[in-house]
Specification:
Strand order of the largest sheet: 2-1-5-3-4
Helix content: 40-55%
Number of helices: 37
Structural class: alpha+beta
Shape: globular
Radius of gyration: 36 Å
Amino acid sequence: MSEIKENQLTETVENPVQEEVSEETYQLTVKLPGNGGDIKIITSPREAIQDIKQSIMESPDTCANSCFYLSYKGKRINDYLELGEVEEITANSELELVEDKYTERDVRLHINRLRDLLAGPYKPNPNTVGIDPAISLLTAITGDVDEDIIEDADKKMDELFSDEPIPEHAYTNVDINERSKLSQLYPQSFQRIAPECIKSLALSGWNPVPHRQKLKGDLMYLAVTILEGEILHITANAQGFFVNNSSNNKFDPSPSATKRASAHSLITLLQKVSPLFATNFQKLQEFITHHHMLEVLPVNTYYPNHPWAVQPPAVLFDPSRPSETFLNSGSDAVESLRDWNDEIQSHRELPKSVLQERVLRERLITKVQAEFTEAAVRGAMAIVNGSVIPLNPIEPEESHMYVYNNIFFSKGNDGRGTFETLGADEAAHVATGKDLEGVKILNSIDPEGLYTLASVIVDYRGQRIIAQSIVPGIFRRQNETSIIYGSVDNGVQIATDESFHKSIGSEIAKSLHLAEHTVLDENEKETKLYTSQETKGLLGADGRRYMLDLYRLNPVDILFQESECIEKDGKPAYPHKMTLLRPELMSLFWEHKFRQWLKVKSEALKKEAKPVEEADEKKEGKAEENMNEKAVETQEEMKIDVNEFQLTFNTDVFTSAKIPEGQAKADEETIRDASKFLSEEIIPSLVLDFASYSISPLDGAALTSAMHRRGINMRYLGRLAELIALSKDKRIEHVHELAVREMIVRVCKRLLRNLLSQCSLEESSLCISHFLNCLLGESFNPKPSPVLPADTNRNDFEWSRLTPAILKSTIEEQVLLRFRYKLENNAIENLKFIPTLREICIRTGIQINARDYRINAYTTEELAVFAAEDAAIQANADRKKKESSQHNRGKKSKKHNADDIKRPTRRMTTFIPEDIFNIMPTIKQASSRSVFAEETFEAGKMSIAQGHKQLGLELLLESLALHEQTYGFLHPETSKCYATLAMIYHHSEDRESALDLQRKAVISAERTCGIDHSETIHHYLNLGLFEHSAGRSKLALRYVQHALYYWDLLFGPGHPDSATADNNAGVMLQSLRDYPISTKFFERACATQENVLGKDHVITATGYHVLAKAYTLEGNFPKALAAERIAYGVFDKKLGPEDSRTKDSDMWLKELTTNAVLIAQKAREEQTSTIQPAPAVSNVGIPSKAPEVVQGELPIEQVMKFINGDATSSNARKGKKKSQKKHK
């Protein structure tokens, strides 16, 4: 099976690669207007003139130009041509940049361009959905680089033993065991706000331009307040910009006599009239260019990430911000609503026969879907906030439907009673997610002639809103039936259409292995379907065939439903019956059955062939030719036709659909086997994968992703936790902790969502802070009091009645209900504070203040200090009051209120409402996938794994180009591609390429996945590794420190993978000759390995061997000897004396023992020669290295103990420290 797949993949990849013709590179010279000189542009003949103009606008030297055209030999070049289509153009031609006349649209674009520049790379804007969208911290962490890249050949070992002082680095004077603080989430050097160039830029109140002035070329009026404090009224004219004579009180559009300034560009004009603007604009350009290109680019093809913890946002005054809609779209913006459905379906109908067509098609689909998602999110927020009137206002609120911005919105509950027998709102909530999953599956199959709607699920303030593009004619065709496939009334009437049925069978049914099955309607009429009867086929008014309600593309998980959807063993019934299997599982099950069939078939053919061979051997006198013929026949018989294997899945079994009895039995058995395959094989195999460290999740999102990739639903989290607990394997204790936390977080998300759905927007922060206090702040305040709105009491709201005890009890009940798992009594108390807070905020869309939250109660000493402070303040207040009363005796005295005295604010709870900065929507989208780009990527990785390095590299480079063209630079898939290629270049020792690609991987992951996402952390660790290999260890340590800081936030200490990161940091510090701090990292890595794997494991022994070398470099020979003894003991026992690691350890052990004897002799000599022995200084050599002077003090008795192997006391102390750490 794998060979067949690989061959098919290689064929599909190789053909399009051949289409890529190596193109000539054009180096054009663009002559600038006036005496501006010229600029060089490197491009290709396939690049559009429009794209070349855009690159000129984004260049720092020519950013002032936005309204111009390019000319060649005096002729204007059409913007919509490709460069190669321009007549007589050559690779080294000279073009001329010609300033063009403005139109109103050009003026708006020019102003927007200036506003974008002035906002800087991060563009803080209250109009965005969240605070700090798509930020990157790479530039801030990198800082000033004072190291050069060093080739391997130039690296010198002598530097390790240099007498030069240790250079200052990221860990200088830092306690490496100090826990990460939330207040340090952002580096101190991170700068959001760009240098200020003007105080404000606004559209003048004299707009729109009067008719008389339009005839003079006036297009718009602006009011600019420059840093000098002066307000300039500026006219945007067809010829350019100039300062006019108007003021806020007088309209005079004529050019100013005092400010005789005009320019084609507004930027140039402001540089002329404001010296401070000219100076600061230069600083602004330097600030922008200091950032990496990908940090400045907007995220256009993916929903940007927003951090869960943010610093208090700076609110900047910008009077032009309310005019953004006009500046972006003009005065007719309201009338220019987009037809989302037609745009998306038109893009899907684009040709895809050759590579360039496929790339263009996929890029357009990706872009329009990202824009649809953004519009859907804003629409859903407006609906939840009550700004949109429903189409059916008379019906109950849960049944309301909306149309906003040409998008259809509905609520994710059972407003129509469709799922009443399956769990009502609970089932409907699941069905919306499964429907979106179905859309995603069909989009990846990309069937010919069948269409899906653009779909997004938005969860905001406790409500689930489903956004879909509108099917043409859906609101006008209520009298005639447009459903031509499936049933709208749960099987009472079932429609079918021959062409629809054929289209589904040709691609969708084949890809998903769907069975063609018969269903019966109310009148026992038979109808053949491939999909479930609940999946509908609709014929739109545009003639396109749409597939809707795709939540049953996969069959029921019948074993779970039979065992858990009933009350038993003290567990309540599972809340709904929409328990479906995942598509990944069905694919794995099909492959599993196919391998079994292949094995049986090949064994059967071998058995058939054997008697024939034996009979042939008995026959004598046969010619050799006949024997050869028989052999050929046997080989032909051994060939297996894979098309003989038939396994399909009927998604209507175990549902309310009526199926003929004979057919149902066989289909039910298949689905039952799939359900059994999940519970008996897939889930236990995942536990084994965790134990072997082939998967090692860092947070809940990584655990969820690992389970979904193997087709395991999240309802099996409890089962997973139970299996891990039964194994009693210390190697996977961290996964058990993650699984328990994930169950609690998911339950908290549901509870908080239900509470928020009953709150108004202004009550939300009160509800969230009280909920978090009850969950995470009980240690600080066991009885937190909620902050209530004015004129209300605690009984008015459900959320305010919560207490830590009630919440704990509710969580335990819900975990048992939803995950079939009984939490231990102290499970909630044992939650790690920051990781749990982070997960809850991310899942519910909360942005919280990035500060250090107190979780422990005030100590007696602190309370005493507070009492003393309060007493002093009160005494001071009393004294002032007395003085005031004496001074004003006999006079009309002013009232003195005791509340006027400023008292220190002390928190009585962990969280307060002011800590909640924002509530954002969380989204699920059916994002499109470039199947071809991903197939090329997998083929490249496969080729490298098989040793075909050059072919693999070419395929990966081709895949990267496809990813960039389809998804853009800023996308999680592109980020993975960057990282994979960077690692290959790193192993090939192409340092520059590896570093460049890894930086791009970091930025892309930060801006789309999140600054503290597990992928981003791994990218930073690898970037540190690459920088160290390139000889820039100080910079490498900055990246590693940043990654380990976030690692501690996500998980805390003790994760098995953290030992690798600690070892890498130790090696980097050794290269900087900071041996004491490097040793601390090796000690921590060793402690982690010993805690997880045990002392007798070979990996732990390797850690001790490395630690012994670290102690040696530090000059601590007794500890080095003790560590090497442990390592040698394990190597000798586990690997045997002949293993290279045992021999290496034995050599080090002998050298260290010799050194210990030399130290002992030196100490004895000094003891006999002096009455009071001085600290011993011994010239002792490091094994296989040049000798160095080491200072140390070691009594003779201790040396003898080490030589004789009696190091028990040292080990006992070490063990005691470890046990204390573990206890903590």
